[in-house]
Amino acid sequence: MKLWHSIIIYTLSVALLLLYKDELLEWLVTGQPHPLLIFLFALCLIIFPIIPYKIVIVALGLMYGPLLGAFLSWSAASIGSVFIYLWVRKYARNRGRTYLSRYKQLEKMAVMMERSPFLAIFLARLVPFFPQTLVNIYPAFLSIRTATYAIASALGKIPIMLVISYLGSNLLSSTANAILVIGLYAVFLGLVYAVYRLWLRERLV
To answer: One Pfam match, by short name (predicted)?
Structure first.
C-alpha cells in the first residue's frame, strides 16, 4: 500500500468516527458490550484519536473495575502504539530522520535515545504530561528495534493505566481513596520526572 492510500484511509476512518462519536460513546457507557468489542473500540481510539484516551480509561474503570478496566485500556494502547510506530517507520522514517538532522538539539536527543532506547522510552511513558503521540512517532525515526520499543512502551504505560482506571472505578463512590491515590501518584510522578531530567541532562551535555 502506498503512502497516499494510507493517508486517505486514515482520513476517512477519522471522519467516520467523528461523525458517529456521540453514538459510540453512548454505546460504550450504556450498551454493556462484550470486553472483546471494548478492546477493539479502544484500539481504534488509539489509532484514530478522536477523543482523549484518558476518558476511555476512566469509562472502562467505571464499567469493569480497576484491574480489568486497566488491562483492556493498557492492552489496546500498547498494541495501538506499536501499530503507529510501525506505520511511521515504514512510510516516514527517512523523511523524519532527515528532518531531525537539521537541528542540532533534536539530533543530540536522537543519538541519546539510540544509546539507551529502552530506558528513554520507558521514562517517557511514565511521565503522562510528556506528549504520548510524540513517544509513538519519534522512536520510529531512529535505529530502535521494534521489540525494544514495544516492551519499554508497554511497561511504562502500566502505572498511569492503573491509576486512571482506579479513579474511574471510584468515580461515584470513594472520594477519599481517590484523593489519596492522586496524592501518592503525584509524588511518584515528581520522583520519575526528577530522574528523567537528571538522566536527560547528563546525556545532552
So the answer is: VTT_dom
Joined together, the cell numbers standing for residue 62 give 467505571
Global pTM?
Answer: 0.78
Residue 49 CA to residue 93 CA, distance in Å, equals 21
How far from 5 is each of 1, 12, 91, CA to CA, in Å? 6, 11, 11
Q: Cα(99)–Cα(93) distance, rounded to whole angstroms? A: 10
From 103, 35, 111, select the one nearest 69 (Cα to Cα): 35
Scanning the chain, the segments in alpha helix (DSSP H) are 3-19, 21-30, 35-47, 53-64, 66-101, 104-115, 117-126, 132-137, 146-169, 175-204
Q: Over the stretch 108-136, which tens digit does the pLDDT of each residue have?
A: 777 778 888 898 899 888 877 777 888 88
3-class DSSP state of 139:
helix
- Looking from the CA of 64 toward its CB, the CA atoms found within 13 Å total 24
- For the record, the C-alpha cell of 82 comes out as 506499536
Q: How far apart are CA 134 and CA 80, in angstroms?
A: 14
Q: CA 178 from chain center: how many Å? A: 22
